[in-house]
């Protein structure tokens, strides 16, 4: 018996001829997808062979229940130019092997041992803030968070402090991410080797990123020691079938993937948290009260993380409103039925945490900032995929525990010592590219707590 909707075309806006909705998606993908969900429902036809699904049950079907039928496919080809064939972009048995090799680096005990490094580097940053910005000088906390989380991922995962190169890395990543995003929504994709101005900018930025990562790999090769970091573990690992070790290209791809995903996302999360707390003083006061009660004047430790319940609730609510990984795409390998609609092999299925996290059927006042939604004492009455900032199914983010601990510790330390006030008149707007950055940065001033 055919599913009830299998012969019908899903609802959706009528796309303009030839270029479809590409101009709208280039200009405002968040608004476009959110409006499409609100107007047309949980299964929307965006264009020929392209759909947006927003209901948790439909997302669960794609990411978890029938995940073997779905790949990232052509959707990640532009991103591969930046990070190669690493965990984020690889597929099938190769992805599974790489995931298994990297998994021990994210074991609970190993992550717990990284807390001291996170606290130490954050303390150094806050001391510098006091010296440089303690008299009311404006600064961009989004850029500062990028620098801090880059140092943390460098030391904890690569055994290298990149303190002297964070500015260069930020500029190179910004250029590369902008290039990848534009390419994703472009009908004409010239090979990067064609010397257009944008291609030359990207090639130069990529060379800067690759140079740093290859230098780290070369240092590890020379030492020939297992330092306990991710690069050492991957370097020592051997393929169970062939006995071969990873090539420098494989190591480079995984290093770039972990570096990008391991610092860019947490930095954006924290930048948005400071925006929200500055705009919601009652929630900021409650956060400060918890920090006084749990920590007093001492710095937090790993053992404090589960005690910082409201701090974690602020993190979770920020992830709901501004999920760094705001969108993903899957392509079915064979025909499937989703929500009763038949979907052909090779179709594009867009899934957006940003959109589903605002679904009015699952969130009261979905645009509002309310950390209490995540109070662990409240009953859990939402479907699993109503909230999925780290994805779901087998390809759930390998570093989610690392990111949540880091975000909780850093937010606690910063809010314990300073209140960050948004500079009046400075525009705050999301910039949905590979991650969800604040488009104009987040200009703030410091006030001691």
Write up this protein.
The protein has 449 residues and is of the alpha+beta class. Helices cover 50% and strands 10% of the residues. The chain contains 16 helices and 12 strands. The chain has helices spanning 22-27, 29-40, 56-65, 77-83, 92-102, 108-113, 115-133, 141-158, 166-184, 197-223, 230-236, 248-279, 281-295, 309-321, 353-356, 400-417, and strands at residues 43-47, 50-53, 70-71, 139-140, 328-332, 336-338, 341-343, 348-351, 418-422, 430-432, 436-438, 443-448. The strands form 4 sheets. It has a 5-stranded mixed β-sheet. Strands 4-12-9 form a 3-stranded antiparallel β-sheet. Strands 6-7 form a two-stranded antiparallel ribbon. A hairpin with a 2-residue loop joins strand 1 and strand 2. Helix 4 (77-83) runs antiparallel to helix 9 and helix 13 runs antiparallel to helix 14 (309-321). The longest helix is centred in the middle third of the chain and has 32 residues, at 248-279. It is globular, with a radius of gyration of 22 Å. The relative contact order is 0.17. The mean pLDDT is 93.
